[in-house]
Design brief:
CATH superfamily of the largest domain: Dihydrodipicolinate Reductase, domain 2
CATH class of the largest domain: Alpha Beta
Order of helices and strands: EHEHEHEEEHHEEEEEHH
Strand order of the largest sheet: 7-8-9-6-10-11
Oligomer: single chain
Number of strands: 11
Radius of gyration: 19 Å
Structural class: alpha/beta
Length: 282
Amino acid sequence: MKENSIIFIGGGNVYNTVSKVIDLDVLGCYDIDKNKSTFNTIDDAVAADADVYAICTPSSNHIDAYNLLAPKLHNKIITIEKPTFLRLEDFNINTYTNKVYPIFQQLYYLPEITVGKILHAQVKVNLSRTQRYYDLADWRGTWEHDGGVLTNQGIHYIHIIKYLLGDIKEVVFRMSTAVDIEAEDTAVGILTTESGIVVSVAMTTTCRPDYNSYGIEIILFGENDYQTIKLEDNPGTGHKQCYNDIIKDNPKSTMEDARKTMEIIHLAYESAYGKSNLGKNV
């Protein structure tokens, strides 16, 4: 075993970005596209004996990749990029002898919260994803393989709200779609925490023209002051510290945290559409 080493399962954008910013020794990636893959087979990747195996395949493939990989590993760390699993039932995994962690790297860009007791919060995600973006891969924007702005871009900030304010007891949402995809590219809603804090959420990828995102911010209103937190829409943001904590067995997010976040996502779809089609072939 090579200490503090990592192999990525999936040779796409996450691998190409994250492998350049983390402190771990990157041994390469396994991908079914042999032009991208360091290893000929998944067994070759296992035999390379890394400390960490990072699943960063397309979202709907996370569970299949996990079920293929996990039984072959012993006393390893397995990480899974967001959204961890699209379907809630897939969280009932066998960890074997391994430790399994979700990746929610945006938590590591939160500053010190200075407002005192939080009374209200607002989440604003205003990004640009035109038809060109979705046309780059036929699975993007589909219910079965991807979801929309809430599942992809917005999930980080739903996770942050739950991290800061606790569990959510009520979810009310409305959604719409402006481009040619199955899922939503605008989601507007209200979350109510178990302690009664009301959070307004507005997320969209309809900023135009292409590459012209307005930005992401969370505004916290507290008993002492208010605080605006600006966050970046950059792949790789926060991954370095996230992996440093995981190697030390001190992650900010557990698989149970990830499951609760996905429960909120599914409840939002149920509120908007009457049912959640996420992870389903429609």
